[in-house]
Automatic annotation (TrEMBL):
BP GO terms, sorted: methylation
Organism: Algibacter lectus
Family annotation (Pfam families): Methyltransf_33
Gene3D superfamilies hit by this protein: Vaccinia Virus protein VP39
Keywords from the named record: ATP-binding, Methyltransferase, Nucleotide-binding, Transferase
The Histidine-specific methyltransferase SAM-dependent domain, residue ranges: 5-313
Domain of life: Bacteria
A single MF term (Gene Ontology): methyltransferase activity
Lineage, top ranks: Bacteria, Pseudomonadati, Bacteroidota, Flavobacteriia, Flavobacteriales
Name this polypeptide is given: ABC transporter ATP-binding protein
Amino acid sequence: MIEVFKNEVDKGLQADSKTLPSKYFYDKIGDALFVEIMNLPEYYLTRCELDIFQNKTQELIEAFSVSTESYFELIELGAGDGTKTKELLRSLDAQNYNFDYFPIDISSNALNLLEKDLKNELPNLSVQIQEGDYFKVLASLKESKKPKIVLFLGSNIGNMSDDMAADFIYSLGSNLQAGDKLLLGVDLIKARHVVLPAYNDSQGVTERFNLNLLDRINNELGGNFNLNQFKHQPEYDELEGVAKSFIVSTANQTVEINATGKTYNFTEGEKIHTEISRKYNDALIEKIIEKTDFNLETKILDSKAYFADYILRR
Ligand code: AVJ
């Protein structure tokens, strides 16, 4: 684990255009900062998808084309605290659908909290928490051949390039059967004055989230980044529909990392690219899906049409 982290950091900081992978945002502090981000007034994504789950619940259920007569498995990739999904679970439960809920997450802590919470709120629901890698868990569930609905919410796919997203969805499909469904929640391309503040909040939470990467390198790899000499810089290209986060060096400086035994030079204004948050439209989704075994069935929008839950059929 730490070896992989070290090698990726070393490679990213030695490149001509420096990069660090966004997956390393999520340590304990990063997880907590992301929860704070989801509650920020500027971060509309979570609220928009919650709006869909609260107010378009019946449309979602209809799109799943399940019946109360037969059993299905509802699988969520990266369930977190399950706030949005709970709306759906409550409704499925009230209408006597026959299903098990399989939340998958890499955080056992998050899963245990979710399990406890659901036991309290929906005591009749069957919850089978699954800790670990999405594809390993899906492979283990594949054998049952039970009909499946997979949820991948929150525009989490947006951290991937379009090619990576197509590969990812293709791999999901290879762990599913014909007729199974994928609900893919994505943020839509929209005006800069809406998107950019979501990644540049006035309280500086996103800045702390981004710079936490340098803190992790300091703590886990023995780095000596001076966080006062780096700042957060988001960008959004409205035409392309991609938000990017950077960490910018505010001085000419040299940083040492014990674990790699190397030093890294930064010029004033030099950027480290840390994240892409892709935004989508129908054409982009269709192009990605084309390379997979899924077909696009419907999309369900929030009241502002900022966010879409696409329903794909394997
Ligand atoms: C969790 C990937 C959906 O890209 O909007 C939030 C992560 N980064 N603020 C996103 C994030 C900065 C988030 N996703």
